[in-house]
Amino acid sequence: MNEAEDRxxxxxxxxxxLPPPVETFIQRLYRDPRYLLVGKMERFGRELIAFVEGxxxxxxxxxxxxxxxxxxxxxxxxxxxxxxxxxxxSLLDHYLSDRRDEEMSLDDEELxxxxxxxxxxxxxxxxxxxxxxxxxxxxxxEHNLGIWNxxxxxxxxxxxxxxxxxxxxxxxxxxxxxxxxxxxxxxxSEEAATELYRAQRSIDQFGERHAEEYAREEEGGDxxxxxxxxxxxxxxxxxxxxxxxxxxxxxxxxxxxxRGDAAQIERLRAEMIRRAVGEDx
Length: 281
What we know:
This protein is an alpha+beta fold. It has one domain (3-246). It is built from 12 helices and 3 strands. It has helices spanning 3-12, 20-29, 91-97, 108-131, 134-152, 158-165, 168-185, 189-209, 211-215, 221-241, 249-259, 262-280, and strands at residues 35-43, 46-58, 64-75. It has a 3-stranded antiparallel β-sheet with strand order 1-2-3. A hairpin with a 2-residue loop joins strand 1 and strand 2. Helix 2 packs antiparallel against helix 10 and helix 5 packs antiparallel against helix 7 (168-185). The longest helix is centred in the middle third of the chain and has 24 residues, at 108-131. The model is unreliable at 1-10 (pLDDT under 50).
């Protein structure tokens, strides 16, 4: 058994099927019309994702000459295109291995290369959702959150940093959805509910914190953040209809705090402490 097959086997072991309405929602949410997923393939003992990419053909002067469909493939694991920048697994790994206490300096070419890498991981995580490989989707979203953090902590201009930072709600949505679906496949409904609720709250907070920057965007940040939150809310509603997840303790606690229900607050906090202690044991 090769490494990819072994990893897939570990991921699928003991997993449960998702309800059909949830499966349909995920397929619709993560199908990108620019990329047609052909499926998995095996080549030289390595598992690959085969897909067709729709590309625009430009002339030397930038005029659109037509459209073309190009056959491509990505690896599972590591950088999707299989390259090892500077001998590392990815550009992110390269910059993290070279990080020092001082602020990292990134020029325009380096920023462009990081954005190109983040795009590859974005496309592959969409394929991972479509294939039901939620651990892979989560890992690819976390990779792009890592790129986001490197750029955010760099000495790049405010405009350059914001060009990546504004996508955080999208990446966080995907990370949380993938993690929640993985929990559900493994029978961990409370953990799935908590993951989705925390993501909704975090996206709201991010939108509030960056309201001024989003206000300068053409379509406005409120609409973008609200859309990412709505996708999670729709998933939560579907999962509750299917009796797949409960209302998380954190959501119950926030609701009790909003009502000023001191007794309920105390009860929920005690339950959260009890569970935390139980997990540590």
